[in-house]
């Protein structure tokens, strides 16, 4: 069993907010904090002062250059947003998300929750790397929720979920657990490259959103390591096909047989 979900802050601006996030995490038993491109140098004295005895979280926090790196060893990722922006991903309440994470963590999976920038949250590309979305039922007339408040809500729901009896037996089969994100990125890159050379991304100005939608569909399936290996093998096989030759003629074995027959 792991120590609970990782809290990931994407490009946090104020070190005081990082400190308050650490304090909120400590209140409810979370300990692993990761930062993606914080604006100010870290560790930071302001963050330590604001953390109020949650120094262990600040001192143990890890800084990454990109979100991909920050979640590469994670099996399942939730992204927090103020509104539903992605029709391809399931949207959960904080309670539902905490329950789901508790089950996954109890089965040995590593989970994470993404929180965006203070002013405008996560962008679509960042959300496309997550598996599901978490939204909070706030007052539409005053929907502003700072990072520390959002982390506090999720941390509270996480602790509360542990007080209830879990009976879900999902993902008992270790081999069928969702793959690490680094493995999924490999599938993204291979498939996107294969589609790009075949002119799939048309018109060019829509390529970015087409890639985001494609990633959203692929993350939704929660593919296991064996499943991703299977899909990558399929893409590699299709890469051997050339429209200028008979179907399958681009495959190495077929070319060899054709040459032998001509002799």
TrEMBL record:
Stretches for region Disordered: 242-263
Catalytic activity: cytidine(32) in tRNA + S-adenosyl-L-methionine = 2'-O-methylcytidine(32) in tRNA + S-adenosyl-L-homocysteine + H(+); uridine(32) in tRNA + S-adenosyl-L-methionine = 2'-O-methyluridine(32) in tRNA + S-adenosyl-L-homocysteine + H(+)
GO terms classed as biological process: tRNA nucleoside ribose methylation
Annotated localization: Cytoplasm
Swiss-Prot/TrEMBL keywords: Cytoplasm, Methyltransferase, S-adenosyl-L-methionine, Transferase, tRNA processing
Annotated family: Belongs to the class IV-like SAM-binding methyltransferase superfamily. RNA methyltransferase TrmH family.
Role: Catalyzes the formation of 2'O-methylated cytidine (Cm32) or 2'O-methylated uridine (Um32) at position 32 in tRNA.
Protein name: tRNA (cytidine/uridine-2'-O-)-methyltransferase TrmJ
Lineage: Bacteria, Pseudomonadati, Pseudomonadota, Alphaproteobacteria, Hyphomicrobiales
Gene name as annotated: trmJ
